[in-house]
């Protein structure tokens, strides 16, 4: 039994590493030699990827809203920021994001990058305290199906 920030951390077997959220702060717990646990702040690379995913989503949302309001694109504007969306709004916005998002040169993202974007967006929800499972939960079938279809299409175009 180990104590960290007045919390008991019980680990049965020797883990490689775990990412733990404690009071809105992310910590990486790693097992080191001689049974010591090492607590480190949230991994910089993961934090960078999550910010990249949020920034990409917000840039897409702003561009889409501008085109919708200008009349160049049909659809409903997505007015809420990602961090303010509920389940229904996520189910509307994220599949459209997957289908429409593109790089700065207007080419589409590869399948692996799209998957990474969605995983990072899901992790952003987790960091806010919402444990959404975009890939397993029936509430998010639209997200899962859209990503699945987009990835299949990407692999077919590649091959």
Task: Write up this protein.
The chain has 159 residues and is an alpha+beta fold. It folds into two domains: 2-42, no CATH class; 45-158, no CATH class. The protein is 48% helix and 15% strand. It has four helices and five strands, in the order βββββαααα. The strands form two sheets. Strands 3-4-5 form a three-stranded antiparallel beta sheet, with no helix packed on it. Strands 1-2 form a two-stranded antiparallel ribbon. Helix 1 packs across helix 3.
Q: What are the key terms here?
A:
three-stranded antiparallel β-sheet; alpha+beta; disordered N terminus; two-stranded antiparallel sheet; 159 residues; globular
Number of domain modules: 2
State the separation between the terminal residues, measured CA to CA. Answer: 52 Å
Query: Major sheet, described briefly?
Result: 3 strands, antiparallel
Which radius of gyration do the C-alpha atoms yield? 19 Å
Number of strands: 5
Uncertain segments are: 1-15, 31-41
Estimate percent helicity. Answer: 40-55%
What share of residues are in beta strands? 15-25%
Shape: globular
Order of helices and strands: EEEEEHHHH
- Strand numbers in spatial order across the main sheet: 3-4-5
Structural class: alpha+beta
Compute the average pLDDT. Answer: 79
Please, how many helices?
Answer: 4
């Amino acid at each position: 039994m180990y104590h960290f920030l007045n919390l008991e951390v019980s680990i049965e077997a020797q883990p490689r590493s775990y990412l733990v959220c404690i009071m809105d702060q992310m910590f990486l717990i790693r097992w080191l030699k001689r049974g010591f646990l090492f607590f480190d702040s949230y991994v910089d690379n993961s934090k960078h990827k999550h910010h990249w995913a949020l920034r990409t989503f917000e840039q897409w949302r702003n561009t889409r809203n501008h085109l919708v309001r200008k009349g160049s694109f049909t659809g409903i504007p997505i007015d809420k920021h990602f961090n303010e969306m509920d389940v229904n709004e996520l189910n509307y916005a994220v599949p459209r994001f997957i289908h429409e998002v593109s790089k700065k040169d207007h080419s589409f993202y590869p399948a692996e990058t799209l998957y990474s974007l969605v995983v990072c967006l899901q992790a952003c929800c987790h960091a806010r305290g919402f444990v959404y499972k975009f890939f397993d939960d029936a509430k998010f079938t639209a997200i899962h199906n859209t990503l699945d279809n987009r990835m299949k299409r990407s692999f077919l175009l590649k091959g």
